[in-house]
Amino acid sequence: MSQSISVSWSTIEAAAPQAPVQPDQLSNYDLILRCQEGIRPDRIAFAELLRRYQSHVDKVLYHLAPDWQDRADLAQEVWIRVYRNIKRLHEPVKFKGWLSRIASNLFYDELRKRKRIARPLSLDAPLRLEDGEMDWEIASNQANPQEDMTTREFYEQLREAISALPEVFRTTIVLREIEGMAYEEIAQITGVSLGTVKSRIARARARLQSQLQNYLDT
C-alpha cells in the first residue's frame, strides 16, 4: 500500500533554487555590503558601484582641477583606493561622502607632489620663443590687478588658495562649496558639531576671499 506524502507550497518554494539578484537590482547599500564580503570586493558588484558613482568622482575632480589633462588617471586612482579600502568603511550609508574625501585627498596629494618636483626657473637659462629668438626676460608671477583675469588663471589661484588652507578647513569647504552638501551632512562625515562646521566654513571663506580679493575686484 502506497503511503501519501503531504507537501506544502512553502516547502516547495524553499526547495526551489532562487534566482540570484543581479547587481543592477541592488541598492547602493547592498552593493557596498556585497563588496565588503570575502577576501576581496566582489568584482561585479564593484563594477556596478563604479558605474553609479563615476560621474560623481569626475565632478569632484573637475571642480578641483578643471584644466588638468590627467583627470582620468586621477579618477582611476580614486577607484583603486576605494577598492583597497572599502572594507574599512563602517557606515555604508556615508559612502558618497567617503568617496568625495578620497577624491579630494588624492587631488591635494598630487598637488603637493607637483609642487615638490616643479623645476625652479634659472635667471641664467635663456628661454626660446616661438619665432626661434632667445629671450632672457622672465615674466613675473605676480598678478597685475589691472589685467583681466582669465578663467584658467582664476581657477589656478583658487586651487592654490584652497590647497593652502589647513586640512580641516580645506575638507569642509570642498564638501560644502564643491559638493554642495548640507551642514548637517558635513557634520556627520567629519565627526564634529554643527557649530564647528559653520565656523570652519566661515573662516575658510574669509581666508579665500582675502587671498583672492584682487582677482575678485578685477
From TrEMBL:
Pfam families: Sigma70_r2 (PF04542), Sigma70_r4_2 (PF08281)
Molecular function terms, GO-annotated: DNA binding; sigma factor activity
Biological processes annotated in GO: DNA-templated transcription initiation
Residue ranges annotated for the RNA polymerase sigma factor 70 region 4 type domain, each copy included: 156-208
Keyword DNA-binding: yes
UniProt entry tagged with the keyword Transcription regulation: yes
Family: Belongs to the sigma-70 factor family. ECF subfamily.
PANTHER family: RNA POLYMERASE ECF-TYPE SIGMA FACTO, RNA POLYMERASE SIGMA FACTOR HI_1459-RELATED
Protein name: Sigma-70 family RNA polymerase sigma factor
